[in-house]
């Protein structure tokens, strides 16, 4: 079994296979230090934490991560808290930076004797439509080309990876959507100024205050598509955050800190169907991209990985039913998450939707429904926390 990519998807597949005694080799293009330091997502759904705990992969997470039960919408300078946990049986989110999870998963796999090859260059899958595919790569240390023969290939190498690109043109159907919205994504060495994630709607555009750790916070500022970080010197970032997150009738201060990362993201969504081709199975960002709005990317990757590992283990026990259903099973959750993130994307960007006062009014109606109806809050909570 070959796993391409050591992000959350590949590492969960590899750890679960290892625990079931199925041999696998993980090929990762970058160094161990690189993958263990790459800051990305941070919100983990309760079912993913429970899955990791079941497999003995959540010890440090449960020690270090903060559990969260509420989030806050700021509209016209007023705060509206949603206790989504209370609306969904007391389930809680965990805030744990993706690179910490990756660090734990790398350690667990290596400690269990797993075969993880970093700096694997020019990784290429071959013979995917045969019963005996193989993967070639160039060893980063020796420069030698190596061939791995395997039964299956798990393509867990993210959106720009080689796995999906290796499938013959026309074999997969791609669904993509550009939202026409840009986000400046900022990581700052600033302690959080809030206990709950803040989604602020402001006439100048959305602003978000996300949580990562006691010393680092992530912020988002809506900006034009294709904007450049050069247009966003630190002083402007803080000035916009202060303005868009401001509260009208309450004292609240935003704590500043050194900015350690700034990127412009163009909101887009993408799903490939089916999530497999021959003996290649795609998982995580290799198969779908979701806007960061609802915090779903890492959780979908974990769900795919769990389903794939379980299906592969069942194969070696004599049943291919789960492998046969793998794509359909994953896609049901993927589309449900896409629908939720689309809803949320439309709601939180309404104030800047200059093109349509109609869409603006719809979004306000949706928010009012969410904030005043327990039934609407329960639906939001189920989607936000993730289906069990
Ligand atoms: N060969 C080997 N490894 C590769 C290749 C390649 N050609 N291309 C990419 N990779 C590696 C990347 O270096 C990375 O470590 O595959 C891994 C893919 O990891 P992620 O991009 O983190 O994707 P995934 O595991 O699906 O996790 C999804 O990541 O994008 C975030 O926020 C998103 O939380 C979501 C999560």
UniProtKB/TrEMBL annotation:
Coiled-coil ranges from the UniProt annotation: none
Domain of life assignment: Bacteria
Keywords: FAD, Flavoprotein
Residues covered by the FAD-binding domain: 2-337
Pfam family, one: FAD_binding_3
Annotated InterPro entries: FAD-bd (IPR002938), FAD/NAD-bd_sf (IPR036188), RIFMO-like (IPR050641)
NCBIfam families for the chain: PRK08243.1
Protein name: p-hydroxybenzoate 3-monooxygenase
Native source species: Streptoalloteichus tenebrarius (strain ATCC 17920 / DSM 40477 / JCM 4838 / CBS 697.72 / NBRC 16177 / NCIMB 11028 / NRRL B-12390 / A12253. 1 / ISP 5477)
């Amino acid at each position: 079994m070959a796993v391409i990519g050591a992000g959350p998807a590949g590492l969960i597949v590899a750890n679960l296979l290892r625990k079931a005694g199925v041999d696998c080799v993980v090929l990762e293009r970058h160094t161990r230090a690189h993958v263990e330091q790459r800051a990305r997502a941070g919100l983990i759904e309760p079912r993913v934490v429970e899955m990791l705990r079941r497999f003995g992969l959540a010890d440090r997470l449960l020690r270090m991560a903060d559990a969260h039960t509420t989030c806050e919408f700021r509209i016209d300078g007023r705060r509206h808290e949603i206790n989504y946990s209370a609306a969904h049986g007391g389930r809680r989110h965990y805030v744990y930076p993706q690179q910490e999870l990756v660090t734990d998963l790398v350690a667990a796999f290596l400690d269990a004797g797993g075969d993880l090859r970093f700096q694997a260059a020019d990784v290429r899958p071959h013979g995917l439509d045969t019963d005996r595919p193989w993967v070639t790569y160039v060893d980063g240390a020796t420069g030698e080309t190596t061939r791995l023969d395997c039964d299956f290939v798990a393509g867990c190498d993210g959106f720009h990876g080689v796995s999906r690109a290796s499938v013959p043109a026309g074999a997969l159907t791609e669904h993509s959507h550009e939202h026409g919205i840009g986000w400046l994504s900022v990581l700052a060495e600033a302690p959080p100024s809030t206990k709950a994630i803040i989604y602020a709607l402001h006439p100048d555009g959305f602003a978000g205050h996300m949580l990562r750790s006691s010393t680092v916070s992530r912020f988002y500022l809506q900006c034009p598509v294709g904007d450049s970080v050069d247009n966003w010197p630190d002083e402007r970032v803080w000035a916009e955050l202060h303005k868009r997150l401001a509260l009208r009738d309450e004292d609240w201060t935003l704590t500043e800190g050194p900015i350690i990362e700034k990127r412009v993201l163009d909101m887009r969504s993408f799903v490939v169907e089916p999530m497999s081709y021959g003996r290649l199975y795609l998982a995580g960002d290799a198969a779908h991209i979701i806007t960061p709005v609802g915090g779903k990317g890492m959780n979908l990757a974990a769900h795919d990985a769990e389903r794939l590992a379980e299906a592969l283990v069942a194969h070696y026990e004599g049943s291919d039913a789960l492998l046969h259903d793998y794509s359909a099973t994953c896609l049901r959750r993927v589309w449900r998450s896409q629908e939720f993130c689309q809803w949320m994307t439309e709601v939180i960007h309404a104030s800047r939707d200059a093109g349509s006062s109609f869409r603006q009014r719809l979004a306000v109606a949706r928010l009012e429904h969410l904030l005043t109806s327990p039934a609407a809050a329960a639906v939001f909570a189920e989607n936000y926390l993730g289906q069990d």
